[in-house]
Amino acid sequence: MNLKKIKILPLFMILLLLMCSCKKSVNLERFEVRNEGIALNNDIKKQISGNTSPSRTNIENAKTVYEPLNYNEQKAIWFSYIDLAEFISGKSKSEFKALMSNALKNVSNAGFNTVYIHVRAFEDAFYKSDLFPKTYYLGSNTYDPLKIIISIAHKLNLSVHAWINPFRCGTVENLNSTSDIYTVKKWYNDKEKNGTYIVKVKDDVHLWLNPAYEEVRQLVADGASEIVKNYKVDGIHFDDYFYPTTEKNFDKSAFKKSGNSDLSSWRIDNINKMVKLVYSSIKKINTNVKFGISPQGNIENDYQLQFADVKTWCSKDGYIDYITPQVYYGYSSTSPYLDTIKRWDKLKTNDNIKLIIGLAEYKVISEDEYINNDGIIARQINDAKKLSNYGGVAVYNYKNLFSADSKFTERVESEYTFITKELSE
Fold it and tell me: Domain for residue 16, yes or no?
């Protein structure tokens, strides 16, 4: 054999192996398929990635990682625990399913694409949880409301964001009847942690968790993670219930031990730690599940009353995916609607974060400017669309738009017509 050919052969074999390896399919785990409108099925993923013959490992990975359904323009509506309570209290599984199916069809037909479902309002769960007791609204029923909601909603192409109040607990009566197996009850029974980890607030029947403590923040993060791990939710949503009071006695002991001198800055830092922890905990399970917060529309109130650092959340990575300020103001209010949404538009400087404007549809039956101006919510939606950072709108809440008292029917139906028209454009 020619000696020159022998020397060339190894090089030829190496090139052949490299060429073969290039033909291998792309690993789905490393090929990020993003779609804000429709959750892609596995067949479409294969077409995009060029993987027509995936390995068994890739098939198993595709089955275990849920691809969330989220939209580029969010058109959301809040379902509060009050809405859910009416569908659940004294109702069988089939009755709840029928009521929820009707409600979600109403939402879809109106042009909404996202629902914020209140799954934990008082450290009670409208889902199966190892961390929190089931909501007493379920009574002796053992069905899983969240599982049913997700199943129905996804068939209607509705994105489901599980809405949580992170720190608000039940009343003393509620806690006394809660099983001792749950962390919150253990803190309530603990002489050192009752009054520090879990606190009674003046003029409030509810007890509150104290975000000053790492264990409390971890419980909040674990609670969000548990939902993302066990359910095909598309997002986790917090509202504006952070610190329940500005009173110094609320966290006096923890503040003293911290060595800090500025109470406000220290509280803001505590909330930031919690938000960041929740965000990272969710992303460890599913990077595409969204995390959003709906703070008060008044930015000064967010800082001075809630100790919510909305500027940081809107400008830096690692805190939230979207923000939904509750701009529940009319055009002529003390915090005028247009001025307020423009402030939020300017505040949101991170392109990775969406700005969703929260609107108070319930005011069309309770506040003069809203009562006397047909189509005011639709007008506000239209004005929100003109923002440079517009990412959608959210309407509060289901009951007031779809199940208002009969004496308000004519006014609400008029507003509904304007809203659905604007959502469709």
Answer: no
Task: Say yes or no: 104 and 55 in one domain.
Answer: no
Fill in the DSSP letter of residue 203: T
Q: Sign of torsion, CA 280 281 285 286?
A: negative
Cβ(199)–Cβ(169) under 8 Å? Answer: no
pLDDT digits (tens, 9 = 90+) for 44-99: 233 323 333 333 433 344 457 899 999 999 999 999 999 999 999 999 999 999 99
Q: CATH number of the domain that 305 lies in?
A: 3.20.20.80
90 and 60 inside one domain: no
Written as six digits, the tokens of 33 are 């398929």
Range of the domain at 60: 33-65
85-92 long-range Cβ contacts below 8 angstroms, 24+ apart: 85/137, 86/399, 88/126, 88/135, 88/137, 88/138, 88/141, 88/145, 89/137, 89/139, 90/139, 91/141, 92/141
**Residue whose entry in the numeric block shows the structure tokens 């915090």:** 335
Which tokens hold the place of 51?
Answer: 């993987």
- Alpha carbon of 235 to those of 28, 56, 78, 108: distances in Å? 22, 29, 13, 18
Tens of pLDDT along 160-210?
999 999 999 999 999 999 999 999 999 999 999 999 999 999 999 999 999
Answer yes or no: are the C-beta atoms of 73 and 386 closer than 8 Å. Answer: no
Listed residues 17, 46, 65: the one ending a domain: 65
State whether 183 and 304 are in the same domain.
yes
Rounded to whole angstroms, the Cα distance separating 139 from 136 reads 5
206-209, strands of its sheet edge to edge: 168-171, 206-209, 198-200
Question: What's the Cα-to-Cα distance from 94 to each of 38, 81, 162, 296, rounded to whole Å?
Answer: 28, 19, 22, 37
Domain membership of residue 119 (yes or no) is yes
**Has residue 340 been placed in a domain?**
yes
Residues in the chain, overall count: 425
